[in-house]
Amino acid sequence: MVLKPPTTPQKKESPEDASMKNGLFKEYNTKAPSESSIHRLFSLANKTAIVTGAGAGIGLEVAHALAEAGANVAIWYHSNKEALDRAADIEKAYGVKCRAYQVDVTDEKDVWDSIHSITEEFNGRLDIFVANAGVPWTQGRMIDGETSHYHKVVATDLDSVFYCAKAAGDIWRRQYTSGLTLTGERLDGEGKNYSSGSFIATASMSGHIANIPQLQSAYNAAKAGVIHLARSLSVEWVRFARANSVSPGYMATEISKFVPPETKAIWRQKIPMGREGEARELKGAYLYLASDASSYTTGSDLVVDGGYIAV
Q1: What is the pLDDT of residues 120-172, one digit of tens each?
Q2: Catalytic residue among 77, 94, 163, 219
Q3: In a domain, 21, yes or no
Q4: Which residue of 47, 48, 139, 198 shows the fewest CB atoms closer than 10 Å?
Q5: Spatial contact of 128 and 48, defined as CB atoms under 8 Å apart
Q6: Is the overall model pTM greater than 0.70, yes or no?
Q7: Residue 255 domain-assigned?
Q8: Does a structural domain hold residue 27?
Q9: Is 286 a catalytic residue?
Q10: Is 219 a catalytic residue?
């Protein structure tokens, strides 16, 4: 009797690597949703969403939009404890589950642990992640600004997006390869409403242009990085998640409260629509990218700026 040498188990190919062969994409890496009803395509019923920077402003409006469309929503805040009350308001208004969590988005471990524990708490599944947390550059000329301020801006506006994407992507890849939630439930079947992950990063029109009269090179560079990170992830994750960004223009939110009125007057004169946007005017953009209505949209940056970069 001849004994055969033991065979080495073949390592399973990752979805990222399996989407390409010889440097070219394979055909039919994804499939279109079977649904054609626009109401159902925009429905987020049974889906789970996490929104960072959602204690107020853009993030809070996005959380409202996703909840109104049927999603259960976890909202993250840094120091604004009013988020706890806002979560209760959302839950009462839309009849979905909504909780607020204090998370330091610049701490990779806190981000990883929070995303995984929240996903387990919210029916064991993750469908949508909106990386929205951000801070402005407030020190004008780059040469005269403090390096510590640069690190804070980049850590919050770019590094945190990477950390969030890494943790959310880990879950979406697992959901794709196993077909199961983190708690072992099947993701397919009637009423499950699961297709793939949707990662949405809040970038800025500042990732496309150099703003004037205020000087904010570090912020602009960070937001350009966010746009290209999402675009790159759309290729890397094509089998299990879509990745897009939204680039708001000047919005009337608390992030720009430090800006003098005379500077805002110059802004308005540079915007064809002649005004700052309201945070609620972004709700449709985020809902589109979160839902199956955008099933063929990935690697895109949706600019919502009143026409600013058109001139």
Answers
A1: 999 999 999 999 999 999 999 999 999 999 999 999 999 999 999 999 999 99
A2: 219
A3: no
A4: 139
A5: yes
A6: yes
A7: yes
A8: no
A9: no
A10: yes
CA nearest neighbour of 108 among 151, 49, 162, 150: 162
Amino acid at the residue 260: P
- CA dist 275 and 94 (Å) reads 31
Q: Which of 19, 195, 206, 223 is catalytic?
A: 223
CB atoms within 10 A of CB 65: 24
| Contact residues for 160 (Cβ-Cβ < 8 A; gap 6+) | 52, 105, 106, 111, 131, 133
Phi, psi of 255 (to 5 degrees): -65, -20
Catalytic residue among 114, 160, 196, 204: 204
Whether 145 maps to a domain, the answer reads yes
Domain encompassing residue 133: 36-306
Query: What total of structural domains would you count in the chain?
Result: 1
Query: What single-letter amino acid sits at 172?
Result: W
Q: What is the Cα–Cα distance from 71 to 48, expressed in whole angstroms?
A: 6
Quick check: is 19 catalytic? Answer: no
Q: Are 59 and 53 in contact (CB under 8 A)?
A: yes
